Fold this sequence. Notes:
There is one protein chain. By secondary structure, this protein is mainly beta. The protein has a single domain, classed as Jelly Rolls (Sandwich). It has 1 helix and 10 strands. The longest helix is centred in the middle third of the chain and has 5 residues.
Amino acid sequence: MQRDRIDNNVWPPENFLIEFLRHKDSIEINVDGSVEPVDYEYRVPVGRQAVLTQINIILTHTTIDPSTFGALSELKEGIRLSFRDANDAVLRDLTGGRAIVRNADWRILAEVKTQSRLGSMGSDAISVQWNFPRTNAAAAVLKSGECLQLRVQDDLSSLDLFRCMVQGLLVTVTKKFI
C-alpha cells in the first residue's frame, strides 16, 4: 500500500473517505424492504483500499423508545451491516449474526451519541457513531471492489429520515506488505 501522503503528516483531500451508503442513486434508507431486501453500499474504487475509521448513522422519527426501531414496533427481520467481497459473499458480519431490530440494539454494537428532540420537526433523533479502533485498523480495511453493505429487510418507509455514512481514508494499492 502506498502512503499517498504529501509529507509525513498530511493526507491530501482526495484520500479522505466521506461517503453515504447508496442504493442506486439514493442515500435515503427509509424504504420498504419487507418484500425484497434493499441493499445500501459503499464500494471501494478499483485500485484503491479503504481504511474505515467510522460509520455514522442518523435516524429520526416521531418518538424514539429503546424497545422500538424509530417509533415503529420491533423489526421482524432487522438491519444487517456487513463487509462483502466483489462477488457479494460476506467477509465479515458486523452485527455478529444478530440483526438490529430495536433502537437499543445500536448500543450493543456502537456508541449512540445522542437521542434528542428536533424542535419544530416534531421528531426524535438517534445519532450512532461506530468507531473502528485505530490500533486494529486491519479489521476495517476493504480492498478494491469490496463494500460495506447495509441491508433493509423491513418496511421503514414511515421513518422521517434514515441515512448511513462511512468515513476513513482511501489509499492507492502499489505493493503488498507481509
